[in-house]
Amino acid sequence: MEYTRLGRTGLRVSRIGLGCMSYGDPGAGMHRWTLDEDAAAVFFRQAVELGVTFWDTANVYQGGTSEEFVGRAISRFARREDIVLATKVSGKMHEGPGGSGLSRKAILEQVEASLRRLGTDYIDVYYLHRFDPETPAEETMATLHDLVTAGKVRYLGASSMWAWQFAKMQHTATRNGWTTFAAMQDQYNVLKREEERDMIPMCLDEGVGLTPYSPLAKGRATRPWGEQTARSSSDTVATSFDRDADKPVVDAIQKVAEARAVPMAQVALAWVLAKPVVSCPIVGATKPNHLKDATAALALTLTEDEIGDLEKPYTPQDNYWW
């Protein structure tokens, strides 16, 4: 495993992160394909063995059960101080006024609930899962700063918003002397590059580290065009990568992979890892080879010609987040 700093911070993170949306009670949330605790344990153990120390979840994943699984896995397979633990806030947990959004009430209620589920007294990276247009930026950023000051949160992150929204939040914190964001978690992969227009240049300028989700395009970048999996054939998010315009990019990944005699997943992830703004792509593992392929990608350096071959067929598209 390789390690790096999260953006310009001193926080040391593994170059591959374990995405935990795939772990949680299948009956407790919107996804039926998630792994139960016994099945998920295999991947938590494997992550520790491979040196994957950045673990990423969210309060809304499978109704909070993902956080519960993560917390118990840390106790079972690792030491808390060896894991960089990330979770998120803003999604709907219940109907009450503190059940969603980024108001002071909601953040304070939800951070305490996350801490209980995770079985810890602090969160290393606390992300705003989505932008909340109904709450003043000052209210949100002041509350987050209070959490850092109280020691309940170490670093701040944001996820999936327009660059102007991120800039507004960041500027609000800077203007008031509050804690600023260290990480941005957005969707970024060889099939989804719209963040290169505004968000990524801003993050480079601000020293914010990218921890992109879906670095393998929900699995579309890992298999030849036309092949399906149980998730890709039923998950509406995954099927969004079945655009006809994506086929030439997938074909290019396959061509480079065959020439290098490596899995397509390694090529697609090596492309993401080559971007200077990327600190730690988040990889969801549900099969034994997923994390092994991800860590192997660290040793794969693509040539400029190969990167050009992967990028040339890209077709611009509307930006969207899930």
Short description:
The protein has helices at about 35-50, 65-75, 105-120, 135-150, 165-175, 200-205, 235-240, 245-260, 265-275, 290-295, 305-310; strands spanning about 5, 10-15, 15-20, 55, 85-90, 125-130, 155-160, 180-185, 210, 280-285.
Describe the structure.
It is built from eleven helices and ten strands. The strands form two sheets. It has an eight-stranded parallel sheet, with helices on one face. Strands 1-2 form a two-stranded antiparallel ribbon. It has a single domain (3-219, 270-300), classed as Alpha-Beta Barrel (TIM Barrel). The chain is an alpha/beta fold and 322 residues long.
Report the count of strand segments: 10
What Rg is obtained from the alpha carbons, in whole angstroms?
A: 19 Å
CATH class: Alpha Beta
Tertiary shape: globular
- In helices, the fraction of residues equals 25-40%
Give the structural class: alpha/beta
Span from first to last CA?
A: 29 Å
How many domains make up the coordinates? Answer: 1
Q: What is the CATH topology assignment?
A: TIM Barrel
Question: What does the main sheet amount to?
Answer: 8 strands, parallel
The chain-level mean pLDDT equals 94
How many helices? The count is: 11
Strands of the widest sheet, in order across it, are 9-8-7-6-5-4-3-10
CATH superfamily: NADP-dependent oxidoreductase domain
In the CATH classification, which architecture applies? Alpha-Beta Barrel
Q: Name the helix and strand elements from N-terminus to C-terminus, one letter apiece.
A: EEEHEHEHEHEHEHEHHHEHH
Strand content: 5-15%
What are the segments in which pLDDT stays under 50 over at least 5 consecutive residues?
Answer: none
